[in-house]
Design goal:
By secondary structure, the chain is an all-alpha fold. The protein is built from nine helices and two strands. The chain has a two-stranded antiparallel sheet.
């Protein structure tokens, strides 16, 4: 949450907020951290994921940055559904476990071949967290992970640009 707050003042954050403001939506149930702006959960997850990764201080020692794609999605769903902190932590930890297991299985090859694990594997973690919070069955969760696989993206060539932080936000929104 501290990184989301710091990233809300980054150069990319106002660009993201202007983009989200152009999207017509009546749902305004999830917070974009560091602002008074409320938006649908998917867009709050997107903006907060970008903010967390904007300054690139979210390393965890694993094969990817797990907080940036997973925490914003879980937080947005919990805020939208007025869920407990316990629910938030459970969803977050399920997402971290899934992303970490996949990341450990494919790292460092995935990275060497030019993919940004935060965007690619983060999509699986975000989807797993959201599946848990929605109470999906194992079959529904498999479908959700399949959709996340289709949406996963991120290439290392974008490092050094605002697109690197976009990878984390897009992965969070994918959940």
């Amino acid at each position: 949450f501290g990184l989301a707050l710091a990233g809300s003042a980054s150069v990319v954050a106002p660009v993201v907020r202007r983009y989200i403001a152009t999207l017509a939506s009546t749902t305004k149930s999830a917070t974009i951290v560091g602002t008074s702006m409320k938006t649908p959960p998917r867009f709050a997850a997107f903006a907060n994921g970008i903010s967390i990764h904007a300054d690139d201080y979210d390393d965890t020692g694993s094969a990817l940055h797990v907080g940036a794609p997973i925490l914003p999605a879980a937080f947005a769903l919990c805020e939208d559904g007025r869920r407990s902190g316990k629910d938030l932590m459970l969803g977050f930890h399920v997402g971290v476990e899934v992303a970490s297991k996949i990341g450990d299985a494919i790292f460092p090859r995935h990275d060497r071949e030019g993919f940004h694990t935060t965007g690619t594997i983060g999509s699986f973690g975000s989807a797993a967290a959201c599946a848990k919070l929605h109470g999906l069955t194992s079959e529904q969760t498999a479908y959700a992970l399949g959709i996340a696989a289709s949406q996963a993206s991120g290439i290392r060539r974008n490092f050094g640009s605002m697109t690197k932080a976009f990878h984390a936000g897009h992965a969070a929104e994918n959940g």
